[in-house]
Amino acid sequence: MDEAAASDHRPVTAGPGYIGRFAPSPTGPLHAGSLVAALASWLDARAHGGRWLLRIEDVDGPRCIPGTDRLILQQLADCGLHADAPVVWQSTREAAYAQALAQLGAAGHTYPCGCTRKDIAQALAAQGHGRERFGETVYPGTCRAGLHGKPARAWRLRSDDSDGSDLHIAWHDRWRGPQRQNLTQEVGDFVLRRADGLWAYQLAVVVDDAWQGVTDVVRGADLADNTPRQRHLQTLLGLPQPRHLHTPLVLAADGHKLSKQNGAAALDLADPQAALRAAGRALGLDAADQRRDWPTVDDWLRAAVPGWAARFGSG
């Protein structure tokens, strides 16, 4: 993709073959868990003779830290992980998200929602439900039949099947095997445009994966739960559905996953090859450790590709 293509909203023409991507949010520097996901996506692309793209997912502007995008790109470069096309920033892609939302609305798949978090909690309590999943409440569908005098705050996507029954999403994960979720009961109608006017991750990632021609999504297991929502969106928008592989999480000493939200330490790149070796071990790849000191990180990366290809295919 050239610079002009990266700045407009026309689909990128992608030839046959594999296209993968790594898509970090610039809310903090990469940590050890981030490198595991980045390395896995890079290895999978190289094992399949494909292309590897980088996308900065900065649609949540208030959470983004100025300069962190460039820091992340430098961290990846220090580890020898270079994109095969110009980097794309989601903040340049808002017109494409608006077009997708309009398409979904015209087909009757979306509706405005006037609920606050307090409204949702009260509605769930009245129904005898107070559960949360991953810190989010399951939306009870309060505004499906109308706003009831409330001003519109957000836009939601219906999560039921075309006949009004529960929508079950099944897919195959290349690491985790067969997966299935009752999207209606386990997630509910989810937000595409937030009350603050920002675009939701689910819509942005689906639109951009299709635009960039992504065939394979390789990412951490903490994002596996997003897959049913994204496949539902892809179906409604008439977009191709990539294959998925979700890697094991790197856990902190307290047993919780490393994340920027819980203050995970920035990746220590005093010795980039050591950081890569640790990430490789987390992915079950020990072949590249037969010589602990390769001349360059590029040599280490090349040595790691056959081990990944043996486990997850090539060609």
Automatic annotation (TrEMBL):
<dbReference type="GO" id="GO:0016874">
    <property type="term" value="F:ligase activity"/>
</dbReference>
<comment type="similarity">
    <text>Belongs to the class-I aminoacyl-tRNA synthetase family. GluQ subfamily.</text>
</comment>
<feature type="short sequence motif" description="'KMSKS' region">
    <location>
        <begin position="257"/>
        <end position="261"/>
    </location>
</feature>
<feature type="binding site">
    <location>
        <begin position="21"/>
        <end position="25"/>
    </location>
    <ligand>
        <name>L-glutamate</name>
    </ligand>
</feature>
<feature type="binding site">
    <location>
        <position position="201"/>
    </location>
    <ligand>
        <name>L-glutamate</name>
    </ligand>
</feature>
<dbReference type="InterPro" id="IPR022380">
    <property type="entry name" value="Glu-Q_tRNA(Asp)_Synthase"/>
</dbReference>
<protein>
    <recommendedName>
        <fullName>Glutamyl-Q tRNA(Asp) synthetase</fullName>
        <ecNumber>6.1.1.-</ecNumber>
    </recommendedName>
</protein>
<feature type="binding site">
    <location>
        <position position="139"/>
    </location>
    <ligand>
        <name>Zn(2+)</name>
    </ligand>
</feature>
<dbReference type="InterPro" id="IPR014729">
    <property type="entry name" value="Rossmann-like_a/b/a_fold"/>
</dbReference>
<dbReference type="InterPro" id="IPR049940">
    <property type="entry name" value="GluQ/Sye"/>
</dbReference>
<keyword id="KW-0436">Ligase</keyword>
<keyword id="KW-0862">Zinc</keyword>
<feature type="binding site">
    <location>
        <position position="115"/>
    </location>
    <ligand>
        <name>Zn(2+)</name>
    </ligand>
</feature>
<feature type="binding site">
    <location>
        <position position="143"/>
    </location>
    <ligand>
        <name>Zn(2+)</name>
    </ligand>
</feature>
<feature type="domain" description="Glutamyl/glutaminyl-tRNA synthetase class Ib catalytic">
    <location>
        <begin position="21"/>
        <end position="266"/>
    </location>
</feature>
<dbReference type="Pfam" id="PF00749">
    <property type="entry name" value="tRNA-synt_1c"/>
</dbReference>
<keyword id="KW-0030">Aminoacyl-tRNA synthetase</keyword>
<keyword id="KW-0067">ATP-binding</keyword>
<keyword id="KW-0648">Protein biosynthesis</keyword>
<feature type="binding site">
    <location>
        <position position="260"/>
    </location>
    <ligand>
        <name>ATP</name>
    </ligand>
</feature>
<feature type="short sequence motif" description="'HIGH' region">
    <location>
        <begin position="24"/>
        <end position="34"/>
    </location>
</feature>
<dbReference type="InterPro" id="IPR000924">
    <property type="entry name" value="Glu/Gln-tRNA-synth"/>
</dbReference>
<dbReference type="InterPro" id="IPR020058">
    <property type="entry name" value="Glu/Gln-tRNA-synth_Ib_cat-dom"/>
</dbReference>
<feature type="binding site">
    <location>
        <position position="113"/>
    </location>
    <ligand>
        <name>Zn(2+)</name>
    </ligand>
</feature>
<keyword id="KW-0547">Nucleotide-binding</keyword>
<feature type="binding site">
    <location>
        <position position="57"/>
    </location>
    <ligand>
        <name>L-glutamate</name>
    </ligand>
</feature>
<comment type="function">
    <text>Catalyzes the tRNA-independent activation of glutamate in presence of ATP and the subsequent transfer of glutamate onto a tRNA(Asp). Glutamate is transferred on the 2-amino-5-(4,5-dihydroxy-2-cyclopenten-1-yl) moiety of the queuosine in the wobble position of the QUC anticodon.</text>
</comment>
<feature type="binding site">
    <location>
        <position position="219"/>
    </location>
    <ligand>
        <name>L-glutamate</name>
    </ligand>
</feature>
<keyword id="KW-0479">Metal-binding</keyword>
